[in-house]
Design goal:
- By secondary structure, the protein is mostly helical.
- Helix content is about 65%, strand content about 0%.
- The protein has helices at about 15-35, 35-40, 55-60, 70-90, 90-115, 125-135, 145-165, 170-190.
Length: about 190
């Protein structure tokens, strides 16, 4: 009796996450080739006139733009690591909503409270995914120690770095992303009856 080996095939296993990461890659590539002009025009959120339609577009598209390959690679690694598990658990539609909600909330807070700060990149979504992933072990009436530790370590680190370090990292977007992930994770896992 002969056994035929099955040839492995590559599958597009997580359409929202893969589509998002591919879009980030393409936008980052265009940003680099344009010397940052395309990123600044379409894929970075900052205080601009509310009469400008691009202001509203940038409330969402800034998550696709990255300042360079290192910035993109760091975010893409986390998105590809955590995203497929979250997409499988919550479904592509819900994960797409989480990405959009995180982008909008973070950009609005940046627009209102930090008028001199320009922001680009998917870091807020990464932090939302990190906190959301820690909710996967929640059971009714229980709070896993892993969730508490992840929240304290990641969000606590961002608060400390936001106070003590002056750099181009938007700790605010990380914190807001983590808060969005916590709220959504709670509502999807504990808050539903």
């Amino acid at each position: 009796m002969s056994y035929k080996k099955k040839t492995p095939i590559i599958t597009f296993n997580s359409p929202i996450v893969l589509g998002f990461v591919i879009a980030c890659f393409v936008v980052t590539l265009f940003g680099i080739f344009s010397g940052g002009r395309i990123t600044h025009l379409l894929f970075m959120t900052y205080r601009s006139s509310l009469k400008n339609p691009l202001t509203y577009l940038r409330f969402f598209t800034y998550v696709l733009g990255h300042s360079g390959w290192e910035h993109f690679a760091g975010n893409a690694s986390y998105l590809l690591l955590l995203g497929p598990m979250l997409e499988e658990k919550y479904g592509p539609v819900m994960l797409g909503r989480i990405i959009l909600i995180t982008a909008l909330v973070t950009s609005l807070i940046n627009y209102i409270f930090f008028p001199n700060v320009a922001m680009c990149g998917a870091s807020g979504i990464v932090f939302a995914f990190i906190i959301l992933a820690s909710f996967t072990g929640f059971k009714d009436g229980e709070i896993p120690l892993t969730f508490i530790l992840v929240a304290v370590l990641y969000i606590g680190q961002q608060i400390i770095e936001g106070i003590t370090i002056t750099d181009n990292v938007s700790n605010m977007s990380h914190i807001i992303g983590g808060v969005v992930g916590a709220i959504v994770g709670y509502r999807l896992n504990i808050g539903k009856k």
